[in-house]
Amino acid sequence: MILVTGGAGFIGSNFIRDWFSRCQEPVINLDKLTYAGNLQNVAAVAPDHLHIFLQRDISESAQIALLLNTYKPRAIIHFAAQTHVDRSIQDPSPFVHTNINGTFSLLEVARLHYSQLSNAERSIFRFLHVSTDEVYGSLMPADSPLPETAAYAPNNPYSASKAAADHLVRSYYRTYGLPTLITICTNNYGRYQFPEKLIPLIVANAIAGRPLPLYGDGKSIRDWLYVHDNCDAINKVLAGGKAGETYHVSSGNERTNVQVVEAVCSTLDEFVPLKDGAKYHDQITYVQDRPGHDRRYALDASKIRKHLSWNPTETFESGIRKTVKWYLDNQEWIRKAQLNINV
């Protein structure tokens, strides 16, 4: 049995769906169900005795300790986080509460739980923390992708809170011997992503005839990673990663934001063409850049490729087509998710 935090969110729910496509090992799915948590994301993924959902805040130490003592999971995979940069700029407090304090509380409970396990149980126990490339700050266009040894330089409250969480996780391995693992991934995209993020937002706005907003000049660069490839990487790190190590997960698919939006528009032109020869591209609208907007992120993933034989299976082009098709086929999911957009 494993424990997944944030399992009703974007990456966490995809991880659980992929997990049950691979095996029948039970999952405790722990999620606070904030605005971006959605039980539809994991509806009917497995029978109730295999998928145990519990609405909890990871900061509630006593309740989490009781869960660990009751279920004795062999691993904790920690996705739970506040993740939207714009929201962190508007109000950093939820990011400090969840990403820093919540991770600290979870680590403390895990440390005490680990100390009570038998030697055999300790040998297989892992605490896997999922992080973001934003902790490294902005790269220049000519800079090489960063290795796992790169220095942290976060530039917004979200990335700063994730950097703090990473440092806490590392410290619990070095100080207490808790067998931790960290994966740091690039920009994920795919099904079940909350529609405040770029790709689902563009799809929703495009088919509704609304403007397609792009920050600044639209030339900020991200490396786009299909969510199922990230889930596969996390599984490989959980199964074969070395305790105390960090693994970068990236696809090498660097694109500017305007290139991403144009790719989505071209795909929509093919799948749901507008009347009279109009193009979705014409709805692109440039808006004022957000404060502290990082120009480029890029990670070197040679470590996980070499040591754990992981490689992405989706190209940017194939992943975009699958993603746009999913959102077009699940417009009711988008509509319901958008009801929480201003929460």
Short description:
With 343 residues, the protein is of the alpha/beta class.
What does it look like?
The chain has 343 residues and is α/β, with parallel strands linked by helices. The chain has a single domain, classed as NAD(P)-binding Rossmann-like Domain (Rossmann fold, 3-Layer(aba) Sandwich). It contains twelve helices and twelve strands. The strands form three sheets. Strands 3-2-1-4-5-6-10 form a seven-stranded parallel sheet, sandwiched between helices. The protein has a three-stranded mixed sheet with strand order 7-9-11. It has a two-stranded parallel ribbon with strand order 8-12. Strand 1, helix 1 and strand 2 form a beta-alpha-beta unit. Helix 2 runs parallel beside helix 4. 46% of the residues are buried. The model has no long low-confidence stretch (mean pLDDT 95).
Looking at this structure, what is the CATH superfamily?
NAD(P)-binding Rossmann-like Domain
Which range does the strand content fall in? 15-25%
Order of helices and strands: EHEEHEHHHEHEEHEEHEEHEHHH
Rg measurement, Å: 20 Å
Give the helix level as a range of percent: 40-55%
Largest sheet: 7 strands, parallel
- Uncertain stretches of 5 or more adjacent residues: none
Overall pLDDT: 95
The total number of structural domains is: 1
What's the β-strand tally?
12
Task: Give the strand line-up of the largest sheet.
Answer: 3-2-1-4-5-6-10
CATH topology, anyone?
A: Rossmann fold
By DSSP (H or I, 4+ residues per run), the number of helices equals 12
User: Under the CATH scheme, which class?
Assistant: Alpha Beta
How would the global form be characterised?
globular
Span between termini: 33 Å
Q: Report the structural category.
A: alpha/beta
Specify the CATH architecture: 3-Layer(aba) Sandwich
